[in-house]
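Running this now, will post back.
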Amino acid sequence: MSISAADIKELREKTQAGMMDCKKALTECEGNMEAAVDWLRKKGLSAAAKKSGRVAAEGLVAVAEGEGKSVIVELNSETDFVAKNEKFQKLASDIANVALESGADVEELKKAAFPGTGRTVEEEVAELVGVIGENMQLRRAAELKGDVIVSYIHNSVADNIGKIAVLVSLKTQGDTEKAKAFGKQVAMHVAAIKPEALNVADLDESLVNREKEVLSDQARASGKPEEVIAKMIEGRIRKFYAEVVLLEQPFVMDGKTPVKQALKDAENEIGGATEITGYVRIALGEGVEKKEENFADEVAKAANS
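Update: finished.
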């Protein structure tokens, strides 16, 4: 069959593959554009396949809010420049909205239908890889359920999109809007201070035991009596809790009042008993090892490729 130049051009724009590869793909797939895209991907000739090995540690986190549930997703790219692209921002936002319906299991989210395209979320990400020419990965997703949920985006680049996203859930017998206002402050605190757990009971037991062991060795090295050492350890563990537990931490709004006390104080304004029931924090690129290259080396590599 005859393959038009316009079809070859369209496939090249979609995949960034070579012209002859695009012509061969269309010929093999009898002119079917979507099948040709898949053929190139399987052969490792499309941009989506070629770029997939590159480290994607930049990008954006996006929030979607629903009734009784909100979600955060992290969509990574290779460079911060791509995060400023409106198509990338829209994709992150749209995926968050899909997650609101499908749930926050990343593998299931990748298989979920992407609205209006006939593709899955994973295929839609690959589609944009072909357009922009940079590796992208849907890396993480998280959800939080509750009576009252507030969100906070740090380093926002658009509505509900930025570099750090926090969700905080509350339960209140008072004014919901006033509870949300306090919850927003707590979300800002979580973004800035990065607590390990909501309360002492939620702390990883192994983390606490390891801290106690270190503190015990330090205290015994002082040569003091055991009863004194016990009190020293008790005091130091309280200090440790104040460093890592949300309710025990000094509230970022004044730097001294524990969050649990700030919550009690806020109940007067809210007008009823209020409880922080959970939180989620996702910061862009956490745990991704970025490959640092010398700029001159990058230029030389590009020139020789």
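Residues 291-296, 298-305 have pLDDT under 50 and may be disordered. More later if anyone needs it.
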